[in-house]
Design a protein that fits this description.
This protein has 468 residues and is α+β, with helices and mostly antiparallel strands. The chain has 20 helices and twelve strands. It has a domain of 139 residues: 2-Layer Sandwich (Uridine Diphospho-n-acetylenolpyruvylglucosamine Reductase, domain 2). Helix 10 runs antiparallel to helix 14, helix 12 packs across helix 14 and helix 14 packs across helix 18. The structure holds protoporphyrin IX containing FE and 2-acetamido-2-deoxy-beta-D-glucopyranose (NAG).
């Protein structure tokens, strides 16, 4: 989800000004025996934000980790922050003590997605919404979507193979969006799908911009699109009040009653739907884009993956396409390519929490109000857990990774409830792509853009051709 990474790409200087005051305050706060973790806080006014922006953020984290160890403090975007770069610490924050660390997002972003979306919450509201989302994206429910996901994959691929150069990331986003809509609403009529698509794309353009509410700014347009989305979703809800027993997310949201028998408000329904669309799109699309890049870079591996896919003959089709689990077993190499891509690219390179109280961990003090960042990418690139971490080697997943060293979908109370669906749609698309198409990359593909997820420059330009 963008919000984890994007926060880095917004409002650098202005927020740094606030940091000065926070910094002064935090000095007075604590008299506990535990000491703050090592690290440098940079200049109070600019924090270390500028440094982080002028370097690749991953290089920044890694050089800090080398200098100070796995747990270190820094100061970014106006907030004092503790970075955690080892599995035990990530587990402590996300799994064993989640009540001490609450999710935290800038208010401006919360407003765009919708403040009632589950990932902004903790406690009983979060638990209820999460259960709904988990049930709606469970393997039993998603498996029924397979034929429709296949249709979407086939039609996307066909649209690419018209001789034109495509921006792979943008095209993968369209696919992921359609799959998102399908899994949230079931079959939704084209009018609504188009309206959602158009307005959502305006919404997301403002997400990474400076949150200035002046007419003409991207943020302002984005807020207006968000209002229109409420309107569209309201209409869809009204039309579907009778369909509340369907097993998709909309059905579950409509059917929900709390302990007092109250239904969810339209706003809670809308915020959670936009939240899921948001969580589902760029994540999946960037992983798919990296898969294409890594496969193209390794022709021998590509041949092996193609061979595996061609083995899955038509007669077996029905049986293979019955769940993510069965597919992963029938196409182990393809599945490991996905796993290794999620490790190497680590598109969600870290997440944010905020200490709800003063917390002591391993003799260090994490003061109340400080941000805490488990650094997934650093853990995924630690040679102690993944030998030669820069090498793309799907075979390393022949052995399951040590617990908490591999967290592409996060872990604990906020771990990704869409991971089954994500893997399923990637496998389906890859199957059709590898058996019926070939492609070539256009232009240089070795630079990275942060959009805000890392993807190859220009979204990886490619030309697709149908294989005869
Ligand atoms: C390859 C694609 C995906 C990746 C890498 C990914 C990764 C993640 C990660 C790392 C988190 C946890 C964030 C945190 O702890 O702060 C998360 C949460 C979430 N993801 Fe995904 N995700 C993907 C696809 C999807 C899809 C397809 C859906 C749609 C159902 C989805 C829905 C969600 C939701 C709703 C949350 C918030 C859960 C909560 O706060 O309880 N994700 N995802
Ligand atoms: C956005 O949604 C509205 C409905 O609220 C619709 O009329 C419009 O065509 C959609 N697209 C754009 C670009 O505004």
């Amino acid at each position: 989800m963008k919000h984890f990474a994007t926060i880095f790409y917004t409002c650098i200087l202005l927020s740094s000004i606030f940091s000065y005051y926070l910094f002064k305050k935090e000095k007075r706060l604590h008299k506990s025996r535990a000491k703050l973790p090592p690290g440098s806080m940079g200049w109070p006014c600019i924090g270390e934000t500028l440094k982080m922006y002028t370097q690749d953020p991953n290089v920044f984290f890694t050089s800090k980790q080398r200098r100070y160890g796995d747990i270190f403090k820094t100061h970014i975007l106006g907030y004092p922050c503790v970075m955690l770069a080892n599995p035990e610490a990530a587990r402590f924050v996300l799994v064993s003590r989640p009540h001490l660390f609450k999710p935290t997002y800038p208010k401006s972003k919360e407003k765009l997605i919708g403040p009632s979306a589950l990932f902004f919450h903790t406690g009983s509201y979060h638990a209820c919404m999460r259960k709904l989302v988990q049930t709606s994206f469970s393997p039993e429910v998603t498996r029924k979507l397979i034929p429709d996901i296949e249709k979407l994959a086939i039609s996307c691929l066909e649209s690419w193979a018209n001789g034109q150069v495509i921006n792979t990331f943008n095209e993968m986003k369209k696919f992921a969006f359609e799959v998102g809509v399908l899994s949230i609403f079931g079959q939704l009529n084209k009018k609504y799908t188009d309206e959602l698509k158009e307005n959502y794309s305006i919404l997301e353009k403002g997400y990474n911009c400076f949150p200035l509410k002046l007419p003409g700014t991207a943020y302002h347009k984005s807020l207006k699109a968000r209002k229109r989305l409420n309107h569209i979703l309201g209409e869809i809800v009204r039309e579907n009040k009778e369909n509340k027993f369907s097993s998709n997310l909309l059905g579950h949201l409509l059917n929900f009653r709390d302990e007092n028998g109250n239904a969810l408000s339209d706003e809670q329904i809308a915020d959670n739907i936009i939240g899921v669309l948001f969580a589902a799109q760029d994540t999946t699309a960037s992983v798919l884009t990296w898969i294409l890049k890594y496969l193209t870079d390794d022709p021998k591996l590509l041949d092996a993956v193609k061979a595996e896919q061609k083995e899955i003959c038509e007669s077996e089709h029905g049986e293979t396409w019955s769940s993510t689990w069965v597919m992963a077993r029938k196409m182990p190499l393809t599945y490991r390519v996905i796993l290794e891509t999620m490790r190497k690219a680590s598109v969600i390179s870290f997440t944010f929490r905020e200490a709800a109280v003063d917390v002591e961990y391993e003799g260090y003090l994490i003061p109340k109000g400080w941000k805490v960042m488990p650094l997934f990418r650093n853990i995924h690139h630690n040679p102690d857990f993944f030998a030669e971490p820069e090498k793309f080697d799907p075979f390393r997943f022949e052995k399951p990774p040590t617990p908490y060293t591999y967290m592409p979908f996060g872990t604990g109370t906020h771990a990704c409830p869409g991971n089954e669906l994500a893997k399923l749609e990637m496998l389906v698309l890859l199957h059709h792509m590898l058996t019926k198409y070939r492609w070539e990359l256009v232009g240089s593909s070795n630079l990275i853009q942060y959009s805000p997820f890392p993807v190859p420059k220009n979204g990886l330009r490619a030309r697709f051709m149908k294989e005869l």
